[in-house]
Design a protein that fits this description.
It is built from 2 helices and 17 strands. The chain has helices at about 50-60, 290-315; strands at about 5-10, 25-30, 35-40, 65-70, 80, 95, 110-115, 120-130, 140-145, 150-155, 170-175, 190-195, 200-210, 215-225, 240, 245-255, 265-270. Strands 1, 2, 3, 4, 5, 6, 7, 8 and 9 form a 9-stranded mixed β-sheet that branches. Strands 10, 11, 12, 13, 14, 15, 16 and 17 form an 8-stranded mixed β-sheet that branches.
């Protein structure tokens, strides 16, 4: 099942469909122990039957449909949460909000019940069929698991907009969004491979931003080296060696994806700029102290001289 869409449960039980207001309950439970009851109502939605006849057909066939939103979490996470703009709306049926032995009603326009799960969980749906031809009630079950296609991005310092070019001496900021990589109540990790045309090759680790966010980020300093040494990454001070005019390739392999092979490979290529555009600005400053004016001009000249020496150390020809 996809994380981005609500989990949909379908029950076919004609003897339970007495009228259009009939409903049944399906219990969802994860291997971690999170459990929630889902209301399944008579509905022809999500079927191939024309809309005007869908509900009548569903009542005749005994088709019940229920939906519930998914949330990354464990059995200890709250399953009644405030409705946010990112949550799916207009769910069919939905999670039951009635609480036993409580007189305070819950406003379903403000909060909703969700199913908490992680990438390692398997979900079991249980339905009690009380009326059967052999007069022996039976529990029917179906299973599924979470699968989410990962997303890879090289971003700016705010992890907001994609980066189109890199600068030596600055940071390479990476972000992977993959819900099924969240597998525990700790901040999990995702691995990404970084290579360059000049020969750098490192496997870097991105850390989950929150305990159950499914978003993994990491930043790595781009260090100038025309002949990088692959496999020498220091986790305490992660550095990617590259050079001016180089190209950095980032590769992430999603081992659990909804593709034909079950694997999704994502790559991003970002060029390293040859240099940066310099800016010259004219300004004037009046100093009341002549000594301060002389010292300031001297420091400015000294700064230009240090910049000149650093450019000579790069051994780049003038173009």
């Amino acid at each position: 099942m996809a994380f981005e869409a609500p989990l949909t449960v379908e029950v076919i039980d004609p003897d339970a469909a007495r009228d259009s207001a009939s409903e049944v309950t399906v219990t969802l439970k994860t291997t971690d122990g999170a459990a929630v009851d889902v209301r399944c109502v008579v509905s022809g939605a999500l079927s191939q039957v024309p809309t005007q006849n869908a509900d009548e057909w569903a009542l005749e066939e005994g088709r019940f449909v229920g939906q519930i939103a998914l949330q990354l979490g464990s059995s200890t996470s709250p399953d009644v949460v405030p409705i946010t703009p990112d949550m799916p709306r207009n769910l069919i049926g939905g999670g039951r909000l009635e609480e036993e032995d409580e007189e305070v009603s819950i406003d379903d326009s403000l909060v909703t019940r969700v199913l908490n799960l992680t990438g390692k969980d398997r979900i079991t749906a249980n339905y009690r069929d009380a009326f059967r031809t052999d007069e022996k009630p039976i529990d029917l079950a179906a299973q599924g698991r979470l699968i989410s296609n990962g997303q890879l991005a090289c971003t700016d310092r705010d992890y907001d907009k994609p980066a189109t070019q890199l600068h030596v001496g600055e940071k390479l900021l990476l972000m992977v969004t993959d819900a099924d990589q969240d597998t525990s109540d700790e901040r999990d990790a995702a691995e990404v491979e970084v290579t360059t045309e000049f020969g750098e090759k490192e496997r870097v680790t991105l850390v989950e931003t929150l305990v159950h966010s499914g978003v993994f980020t990491g930043s790595f300093t781009l260090q100038s080296n025309e002949k990088p040494t692959p496999g020498n990454l220091d986790p305490g001070d992660p550095v990617i060696e590259c050079y001016f005019g180089d190209t950095v390739t980032v590769r992430y392999v999603d081992a659990a994806a909804s593709t034909e092979t079950g694997v999704l490979e994502l790559t991003r290529e970002i060029p390293v700029v040859i240099g940066t555009d310099g800016l010259v600005a004219a300004f004037s400053k009046t100093f009341n102290d002549e000594k301060l004016a002389v010292e300031t001009k001297f420091h400015i000249a000294e700064s230009y001289f240090e910049l000149f020496k650093s450019h000579r150390d790069l051994s780049r020809s003038v173009e």
